[in-house]
Write a structure and sequence with these properties.
The protein has five helices and seven strands. The strands form two sheets. Strands 5-4-3-6-7 form a five-stranded mixed sheet. The protein starts with a helix and ends with a helix.
Length: 182
C-alpha cells in the first residue's frame, strides 16, 4: 500500500508541475509585450544630463522641462519602427499641443542628424544617448518608446512601440489636456 502511494506521488507530482508550467506558458504567450506596465508610471522621471544631438556643446536635462507637460520620444536612425512612427510625430509637433523632445538612442550622431534632415524634425531638440545609459534608466525595451511627463517631472504615460494616430487621439491628447488643466 505504501509503495502504491509512493508510485502515484512519483507520477502525479511531476505531471502536476508540468501542467502548471504549460498553463503559465500559455497565459504568457497571450500577453502583448508592448503593453508591459512600467514601474515608472507616477514616479519622477529619472535624472539625466546629455549633450544635444545638434549642439554637442549644450546639455539637456529633464529638469529643464519642470513646469511644462512634455513628450519624450526615444528614437534612432537605425530603427525601422521609428520611420513608421515619424509622420505621426511630425503631425503632433505641427499641432503645437505638446512639445516633443527626442532621446536619440545608441545612434551615431551623424546618422541621427541626417535622418532628421531627410525625414523632418518633430523635436524641440534631441538629447544624444550614445551609450544608452539614460535609456536603461527609463526602462527602454527598444525603440521607439514614448513618455508623457507632467509639470512636476512625473512620468504619466509610457508607450512601448510605434505611436499611431489612434493612440495619440485616444490616449496622449486627452492626457496632455488633463495635465495642462491641472
Amino acid at each position: 500500500m505504501a509503495t502504491e502511494t509512493l508510485n502515484k506521488t512519483q507520477v502525479f507530482l511531476p505531471l502536476g508541475i508540468f501542467a502548471a508550467l504549460v498553463v503559465l506558458l500559455g497565459v504568457g504567450l497571450t500577453l502583448n509585450p508592448r503593453e508591459v506596465p512600467s514601474p515608472l508610471i507616477d514616479k519622477p522621471a529619472p535624472h539625466f544630463e546629455l549633450p544635444q544631438l545638434h549642439a554637442p556643446d549644450k546639455v539637456f536635462s529633464e529638469k529643464d522641462m519642470l513646469g511644462k507637460v512634455w513628450l519624450l520620444n526615444v528614437w534612432a536612425s537605425w530603427c525601422v519602427a521609428c520611420r513608421e512612427e515619424h509622420p505621426v510625430l511630425l503631425d503632433l509637433a505641427r499641432s503645437g499641443v505638446v512639445p516633443i523632445y527626442g532621446l536619440n538612442y545608441k545612434d551615431e550622431r551623424k546618422d541621427g542628424i541626417a535622418w532628421l534632415q531627410r525625414l523632418g524634425d518633430p523635436y524641440q531638440l534631441s538629447a544624444y544617448d550614445i551609450k544608452g545609459m539614460v535609456g536603461i534608466d527609463y526602462g527602454v525595451y527598444g525603440v521607439p518608446e514614448t513618455y508623457v511627463i507632467d509639470r512636476r517631472g512625473v512620468i504619466r504615460f509610457k508607450k512601448i512601440g510605434v505611436l499611431t494616430p489612434a493612440i495619440v487621439k485616444q490616449k496622449i491628447l486627452p492626457l496632455v489636456n488633463e495635465l495642462n488643466r491641472g
